[in-house]
What does this fold into?
Amino acid sequence: MLLHVPDVLTSEEVARARGSLDQASWIDGRATAGYQSARVKRNLQLAESDPAADEVGDLILTALQKNSLFMSAALPLRVFPPLFNRYEGGQSFGNHVDNAIRQISGTGHRIRTDLSATLFLSGPDEYEGGELLVEDTYGVHSVKLPPGHMIVYPATSLHNVRPVTQGARVAAFFWVQSMVRQDADRTLLFDLDTAIQRLNHDAPDHPATVQLTAVYHNLLRRWAEM
It folds into this structure.
């Protein structure tokens, strides 16, 4: 499932994040890349130890907890602390698949990367190029979203970022370990949850609502890993 999650951050929160990130020190993005990714990765990245990374990362994590669409679709068990990248001057990131396991810096904790997420912090009018291309069974999807909007997709997906030929593309990116490992199972639960919410809105007293809610929770109980 590839899902556009709008308005994760408000315009005021985006401005606050950009203010912090614009004053931060950026390093070569290959510092955190694996062997294969480093061969095709050409961008800048905020050092994980930079105070701006903690500040803006906490802002994003707080916003995610309040975002019902993200919570319903991702069913997060653990969220990797957000990282930040910047593309400019022709920089790009060639085709790659994200690492299956990520170590959280400075801790003994690791997460399984079930979902990848990119939260755009630059507006589409601020740069040329820079589209995120995500490949799935239905083809290649080009993603370039307004600031504060996010795209979530299976971390198993082959993806790349096209060269930024003018301006600068700034974004946060992170991974999610879901309570439900399989993408097809998460998609089924998300569709069912969406239908239940619609039924609650259109016919709040309909007896089928309780039955469908029971089915949802029984499936979640069967598939969830804690």
The chain has six helices and 16 strands. The radius of gyration is 18 Å. The first helix runs from residue 11 to 22. The first strand starts at residue 3 and ends at 5.
